[in-house]
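How a chain folds remains the central question behind the approach discussed here. For one protein, we set the task of working out the structure tokens from the amino acid sequence alone. The sequence in question and its structure tokens are set out directly beneath this paragraph.

_____
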Amino acid sequence: MFLEDIPSFGRRLHMDTEELQRSEREAWQLIHAKTKRGSAYRRRNHEQFATFFPEGHRTSLREIVTYAAEVLEGGLNFVGTRAYLLDQVHPRALRLIEKHGKDYWPLTWRGTEIHTDTVQPQPRSCAADAIHLARLFNRTTPGRTHITYVEGITFGPDVPIMLHAWNARGWGGKCRDWSHYSVSHWSRYIGIPFTLTEWEELRMLIAPQENACPLLFADTHFPLIEGRVVEILEKRKG
């Protein structure tokens, strides 16, 4: 699977301009409604997911990560392509994901009432969303394995190939993506997990101001933390 083969996914092409501006709650209500339109939307996503990921959630994005790293290392970019958001990722961070990244299986939010919650994920704030969810769960369920912050690459019929943040329990291979809860079960994920203590240490090296939630692997951020991230990952191997 190479980026040239990627069909026109990740743009909600069958949604109009007004619908693209919907909140995650509104997207959920549209997509999961028991209407002809909702049914058609879900059917189309199922078909697109099956076409592009023939092994379903056993399909890895590692090959895409490798290819993207090669392109960026060669001084090229993805401007004008469906993978343009990968230009925001540091190529050495992609190599780290290639080597240490874990493939994640997203748990569905279907059957929940998450869209009725007062607090909702914010647009273009996946790191802050993931940190909020981890802190909330770790505080309210102290006896269980802690929720980790995961950062890496995601892609699906409604999600462009992009740097993203989500959550997992401990080092397990199943994840929750609150930022994209309306469509996450149609996406694939590969990333590196960090405890909240590790994330806070790395965050302070990038943006020490209070409440900052930077994406660790962004092109301008990763050089500031690269050495420390490598130390953390090497220590885990030991």
Remarks:
- The beta strands are 102-106, 147-156, 159-169, 174-176, 188-194.
- The longest strand covers residues 159-169.
